[in-house]
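Appendix B. One record, verbatim.
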Amino acid sequence: MLAVDKTTFEQEVLNAEGYVLVDFWSEGCEPCKALMPHIEELEKQYGDQIKFCKLDTTKARRLAIKQKILGLPVVAMYKDGEKVEEKVKDDATKVNIEEMIKKYI
């Protein structure tokens, strides 16, 4: 999974063509860390159809706020640089994220 930061987010996500899934997480977020292996599993299944990225929000607070990331975990789907859907907090489960991915492939 490609780790993006405030300097690469625009290029890798906002300027990307097609679908990009972004896992917004932080080191202090236990639910985020519990979710990460599931996202990596989904990347193995769908990584050839969707680009997978992760952003540590503690290192990019302004960017996270600009993307309207107000709580964690958040897994968001972007299409051609526009956020089209996101799963937030309790809705950010492997099952819900996989359903979201399947909608766009």
